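Q: Predict the bound structure with guanosine-5'-diphosphate.
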Amino acid sequence: MEKDKRLETEINKRRTFAIISHPDAGKTTLTEKLLYLGGAIRSTGTVKSRKSAKFATSDWMEIEKQRGISVTSSVMQFSYQDHYINILDTPGHEDFSEDTYRTLLAVDSVVMIIDAAKGVEAQTKKLFKVCSDQGIPIFTFVNKMDRNGREPLELLEEIEEVLGIESYPMNWPLGMGQNFKGVYDRQLEQIEFYETKDKEQMLKLEKINNLNIEKVIGKEMFSQLHEEISLLNEAGNTYKKDAIQQGKQTPVFFGSAITSFGVPSFLDHFIRLAPPPSSRESSKGIVKPDKEIFSGFVFKIQANMNPAHRDRIAFLRVCSGKFEKGMEAWLERTNKSMKLSQGQQFFASERGNIDIAYPGDIVGLYDPGTYQIGDTLCGSKDTFSYGDLPQFSPEHFAKVRAKKALKQKHFHKGIKQLSEEGAVQVYRTAKWDETVLGVVGMLQFEIFEYRMKHEYGVEIQFDSLPHQYARWTSSEDIESKTKGSSNLLLVYDQNELPVILFENNFALRWFKDKNPDVQLRESR
Ligand code: GDP
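A: Predicted complex:
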């Protein structure tokens, strides 16, 4: 069959990515500048206002308002130079959740922001690992060059050492802080000159070719640049496009998001270098994005974005073929067909309806309780699965119950739905059938409590547990093997698989020593 040229063209135009960073590195600022460049917002400050009191998309996002953080991920699409760019927002606060991890499974590349003064920070490290484990291409933006930070060479060294990835500086800064004069683009062999008014706005972006650089930046800075570039050329890594696309080398860009400096040229390089949607493994072999038949998977379910409707939205990443509103699709898990009548696209906090989507795009599907995280949807009866999304090993645990016994029914309904959404992991204790929650970030507890109260009318009593590690096992007779130990707790997950919760590393080691034949896994 002749390939659908239109489909191929649309796929090649897509760039779907997420930004990873430690809080305050400048994710919101960079996102906003990118949206501005794409004409998706008319003035900057729009995205920012999500952090202020203006944001009122739904009532449970009260938590966002109160804490000034973005709890939920949204999807933003804009076009730039004949490309369609999807930014999947990930919560940027310290206390992150499984949502963040799962969002990273739905992108084709990531942009990692590093604060020039702080270098590689804790959360960046964690998020980086999730991406590099999957071989996702990683683009680095070293931000806040308008302030005094660390030496660029030192930052590169830190990226290589701490994260274990080769770096290749795409541009090189001329000075820093008060003396920041611009960057030298190593591929275009030209400088972008930095000039601001009131430290807020970049006024002029001059592209000066090699011959005239010295005239513009002066003798001293020129000889330093010459020296540093020579050093990079001789002793630094060589540029390897393949390695970049396999996530083995990270191209590094220096800039200043707040003044927009370096952002346009970053985006230009990014759309050229970042891969379009590629093939994915499925239960029936590799699925290419230009396979005619539509397919995609649900990586996130979010409830009640609109309090007037009390609905849920399943976020579907399109992986192959074309999504069309109203089309028939089969849910792999149940093999039932359904009409995909509502396709919602997300832009910042607004929702709009979409009729057509291509691989790389994210579609929000109205979900009356049909979908589960990790579900695959196919455009034909001959379904396949993109596999279960990995469950992440929770690090915090608590016993929960409804404060009022009369609310049992609502309590169980809430627990069931919220665990299907992936908001929390739910277990029951082997001994008394008590409900235990497991989360990756403490904030998930807070959101859980809030939603149980506002969506299910149940007030929750929490008793936090001292356990820190969850280990799945399929070993026989696990009840007797765990009996009598005070620093572990045996629970069962929602698939009735036994999970041992350990209080600390010592307890974990002690158990392993005593039961060398018991296999323990970090996730299901
Ligand atoms: P997020 O928490 O990663 O989303 O970070 P924000 O984008 O909210 O930025 C955190 C703070 O750093 C804010 O006060 C920004 O104004 C500031 N900021 C962001 N980018 C820059 C930059 O390039 N230079 C300077 N000097 N400040 C910046």
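A: The CA atoms of residues 98 and 440 lie 6 Å apart.
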